[in-house]
Amino acid sequence: MAQRLALQRLLSLPARGPLASHGRAFGTSAGRRSTFNVQDGSDFQDRVVNSPKPVVVDFHAQWCGPCKILGPRLEKLVSKLEGKVLMAKVDIDDHTDLAIEYEVSAVPTVLAMKNGDIVDKFVGIKDEDQLEAFLKKLIGA
């Protein structure tokens, strides 16, 4: 009974949040379109190396604690840039060849790539201000 009353109260509250004003329950965000998981070497070549836009490459692993903190933080900031930069996620356990090719010796490792070239890089976790500066430098803002 108490659960039903709590649910009724919750459902009677006015809609809030980013989707409330759009009048739809589900939508696609810029973050989802600008962030992708690399499928294989060919996909990396097509979507990262040959990208006309700057790309942030997040080399991570499922077992890596700092990666679990950095990944969402970076995705959030990339989505705020509304398509000015893309984010490629590379799981080093699934794509060891790419990790070796790009000399990834620790995770998380994040590369900033422009026109197929690495223009910046960091290893480890960063706070939001440091990530914003990293992204602004990449897009030239």
Automatic annotation (TrEMBL):
Q: Where is the signal peptide?
A: none
Family annotation (SUPFAM superfamilies) = Thioredoxin-like
Task: Extract the Pfam families matched here.
Answer: Thioredoxin (PF00085)
Q: CDD domains this protein is in?
A: TRX_family (cd02947)
Listed GO CC annotations: mitochondrion
**One MF term in the entry's GO annotations:** protein-disulfide reductase activity
The reply to whether Transport figures as a keyword in the UniProt entry is yes
- What residues does the Thioredoxin domain cover? 24-140
UniProt keywords (A-Z) are: Disulfide bond, Electron transport, Redox-active center, Transport
PROSITE patterns named among the record's database cross-references: THIOREDOXIN_1, THIOREDOXIN_2
**Keyword Transport on entry:** yes
GO biological process per UniProt:
cell redox homeostasis
The family assignment reads: Belongs to the thioredoxin family.
- The name of this protein is Thioredoxin, mitochondrial
User: What is the source species?
Assistant: Pycnonotus jocosus
